[in-house]
Give the backbone structure.
Amino acid sequence: MENESSPARTLYSPRYWPGWVGVMLWRALAALPFALSLGIGRLIGRVLYRLMSRRRRIAEINLELCFPSSTRADREHLAKEHFASLGAALAEAGLAWWGSRKRVLRYAKIHGLENLEAAARGGRGVILLTGHFTPLELTGRILGEAVPGITAIYRANENALLDAVTKRGRERTGHTLRKQQTREIVRTLRAGKMIWYAPDQHHRGAQCAQVPFFGRPAATSLATPRLAELGRAAVVPYQPRRLPNGQGYEVRLLPALEDFPSADAVRDLERINKILEGWIREQPEQYLWIHRRFKPAQPDMPDPYAAPGA
């Protein structure tokens, strides 16, 4: 109707003004020399460790579930480093969304492009499979500069302003589709294009299975093997990581998974989780531990995140 505001106009309403202030500060952070921006981001992360008690508790529970043999002191240190890594991700996302191509590529190292080329040979679609690691935005931009036109599959953010900023930033080198847009995703793959996909977050309902993750059952989406089958696509795992001592950022592309999908979807998901586990053990502070990965799939199952005595 004529009197209805468009979504874009709505974002300029007073309720979003504090958010716009945050975005302007974020852009200002991104405009600083990157080493300084990164240092400020890490400091912000360490402050958030103190302030975000709920998220800190989730991270501590996840670390205890995944690394039960480590000491409490070691897990506490890892949780602090994780929040510093989350803060660094603010600076990295700013560079990814607002930085020039030349500035972004200054920090880029890409290995295994020949594996991606081999998987896409003959016009086959490709699922670029990864996990939720903190330098994901910047490594995604790096990959997008090397291989333009990748479609990123994402979950919409509840904050409309942050969702719009994220979407626009990610579309600097490619396209975006929401994870619910299954038909469009399959069409993209069948057209011989590439999608970015990270399936390692909690899922509920009939379209998931209980699959071991660090030896514990985790509700895992069945979408990856199904998309590979429906889209007739190859699956190329890639590892994004922040290198130590300011050496930059690495994207490592592995060979396409063989015999994927197989006749056993759960076995396929186990293979994916094993790959992710290996990467996480290499760089544990860079994985997204503040997500409730082990939420119960059914209401009658025990919830490791429930408050004591609840």
